[in-house]
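Its record is retained below.
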Amino acid sequence: MAINTNQLSKIPKLTFQAYKESESQAHPGCYQLDLAYLTLDSLYYLIERGHYSQLDLAFTKLSKSDMLGLLENMPVFDERIIIRLINLVGLSLVRNKKELFQSSIVNGSVKSVQLLNQEITTSDLILSIKYGNLEMFDYLLAKSEPSVELLLHATDLNKIQIVERLLPLVDPSFDSDLALRIACKKGYFDITKLLVSDSRVNIHSQANYALCWAARKGHLAIVKLLVEKGADPSDNDNFSLKHSCRNGHYEIVKLLLQDSRVDKHADNDYAIAWAQEKGFEQIVQLLL
């Protein structure tokens, strides 16, 4: 249970070292830090431990420059402390607003982001995608312009919920369906399925690149999906078959050979030559 400042004034005071020792001896809340021993180390300790009542008392002893120093050097992100200190010193005096803003994004603190009130850039949105906080991403997106760059980053990081949010706002066919190619190459089945369901996406782009790389990388479920959607496994001189043979993807080879368009002898029997070279006997038997 939180201790209010009135209760705290009645609790015995200790030096910083004694205070830490009392905590290690399982006596949390039985003592308080004597503000006569207030140092940066002791403040950092209170922040790390989340001792907000004692921090509020400590803040009354700090000058604005001390508070600004805390904001610039906090050892851990703490939304309550950041908001409290900014309210005490005034936002105009905070020198590292952008750094705090980005730390707030990383830590998912929408309240801090709102308080810091910085211009939102594409880099900020990409940061929110990387750390996967949907509430933060939604907040930033609502205050900025969506871009296909965000879709590409979300796809690359396998953030399907963000991809779902962006699809109605941007064109997924950008750069010859780059988003689909990324998803297929990396093996992100759910994102691939989502993208191929969009009528703007062309699964045949760049000589069926998506299928070629899914086969090469061994992503069987994606290969099945793309073939079912009409992708041509014979495209690019039977690249899909040749490279699935070369990399030992037996189930994919078996699937591709069921398609009448596939030529297992393409490129001077490249497929069987590499299967033999690599010692993939099961694949060799399929090709004979």
Notes: The mean pLDDT is 92. The two ends are 74 Å apart (CA to CA). Residues 30 and 116 are 36 Å apart (CA to CA).
